[in-house]
Amino acid sequence: MILGIHHVTFLSADLSRSSGFYEGLLGLRADPKRPKMSFDGIWYDLVPEKSSGQQIHLMALPDPEAELQRPAHGGRDRHIALTVSDLQPLLERLERAGVAYTLSQSGRRALFCRDPDQNALEFIELKNA
Hints:
By secondary structure, the chain is of the alpha/beta class.
């Protein structure tokens, strides 16, 4: 029986640039408990105050799909969907940072953007989250 998602992993060509996105823009905090591995990386706790165990892992490894043309709308690409309690503050932060995004084509309160390595992320507003 599946209990939930523990983590999702994205490749990163530049951890410094990626940490600016995930920490600076999205406000995530790096998990200091990441063990030493044969490659550099960062683990981010998605809901640290609830000890949910849900994380985004960045791995500093070459992307075998680096030259692949990605769809303009992240909803038509592989992506992770994250819930937020209010979409507006995120939308404003993305605009200030010059990060392109598209709104959900389904009409629900959601947006798609890409991290510096072109990984697609969806943010869905759940007012009771």
